[in-house]
Each structure stands twice: as C-alpha cells, then as structure tokens.
Amino acid sequence: MRGRLVDLWVDVTNAGGAVGFVAPVTATEVRPVAASTLAGVTDGPDRLLVGYQGDRLVAVLVIADNRFHLKAHWRVLKRVMVHPETQGRGHGAALMREAERIARALGLDALHVTVRDGLGLDRFYRHLGYREIGRLPAALRLSPADTRDEILMWLDLAAPREAGPTVDLGVVTPDKIH
After folding, report:
1. Eight-state DSSP code of residue 173
2. What is the pLDDT along the chain (178 residues), one digit of tens a residue?
3. First to last CA, the chain
4. 175: left (phi > 0), else alpha (psi -120 to 50), else beta?
5. I want to staple 86 with a disulfide (CB 3.0 to 4.6 A). Which of 9, 58, 138, 159 is the partner?
6. What is the three-class DSSP state of 172?
7. How open is the CA angle 125-112-65, to the nearest 5 degrees?
8. How does strand 56-64 pair with strand 110-116?
9. How many CB atoms lie within 10 A of CB 163?
10. Which of 172, 139, 167 is closest to 49 using CA atoms?
11. Cβ–Cβ under 8 Å, residues 79 and 20
12. How many CB atoms lie within 10 A of CB 78?
C-alpha cells in the first residue's frame, strides 16, 4: 500500500495536482511525507480512505483528527487525490461522499478541506455541498513568482445528502499498510 500511495502522489503532483508538492516531484521527496501521513493512520486517530478501479489504487483521502479536544466535533480532509488517468469518472466524488458518510456515522458536525486557488478545485467541493468560509491570501508560495490563496471550505453535516455514483472504496486499517 505504501509504495502505491507514493506512486499515486507522484503521478498526481506531476500532472499538476495540488496535494502538497509542486511538480516535478520524485518518490524520494514524497516518501517521508507519505510515511508521516500513514503514521497518523497506523499510530493515531486518522483514517485513510482509498478508491480502487479493479486492483489499481486510483483515489485517496485522509480524514485527519484535529488532535485538540475543542475541535473534536469536526475533521479535516487531507491529501485528497485521484489519479490523473481516472479523473472525471466519479472516484473523487465517491470518496468524498464516503468520508461524509463516515463523519456522520462518527457523529461529527462538519468536515473541512483546504484548496489551492487557481486550479478551479473549489468548484468540485462546492458541487459536493462545501462552502467557502475564508481565504488565506498568498498563503501558498509555489515559486518566488507564484503565490496562491489557500481557500478554506466547510461542509455542515446537519442536513442529509443524496446518494451518488459508487466506486470500490475501502477504509485502510493499520494492519493493511505495508
């Protein structure tokens, strides 16, 4: 799983995806961040959701605990990514709906995600019911000549949502991460 996650991360980043790196990136650069992310799943309260097309890993997101008791009623979605070759087929939306389902089952009040401005990603999240709650201006410096706002988006879980298309999803338990 760990190697496939790193490969997905590299492919998404190098195709222009906003998952914490700027292209070009190598597996060597991604591996420590992936290890830290997975440690939050294996050793901590975070959850890893994965989407497969057949036996191919095509989508990932992390439901991250805030690790602060005053924020225990909501979670942050991190590292939301879909392989570039499989984008537009509903994998990302299905993964987000599954994160929402899990959050509701946990009795959470909300989900939060941050988005790099300039890529139109906020439209994807708006379509799923998220709303912009703020921006951190020029918070992301991709290069000396390229800074972007970080868009803060929020999903209030008070209202039920419609079901959408399905994709083969799974929650990865610590014993499945190698």
Report:
1. P
2. 789 999 999 999 999 999 999 999 999 999 999 999 999 999 989 999 999 999 999 999 999 999 999 999 999 999 999 999 999 999 999 999 999 999 999 999 999 999 999 999 999 999 999 999 999 999 999 999 999 999 999 999 986 666 555 556 665 555 555 4
3. 6
4. alpha
5. 58
6. strand
7. 140
8. unpaired
9. 8
10. 172
11. yes
12. 19
Handedness of CA 131, 136, 139, 145 (dihedral sign): positive
Pairing of strands 110-116, 74-82: parallel
Identity (one letter) of the amino acid at 142?
L
Would you tell me the crossing angle of helices 2-14 and 27-42 to the nearest 10 degrees?
130
Q: Rounded to two decimals, what is the model's pTM?
A: 0.88
Question: What's 92-136 look like in SS3?
Answer: HHHHHHHHHHHHHHCCCCEEEEEEECCCCHHHHHHHCCCEEEEEE
Helix (H) or strand (E) holding 34: helix 27-42
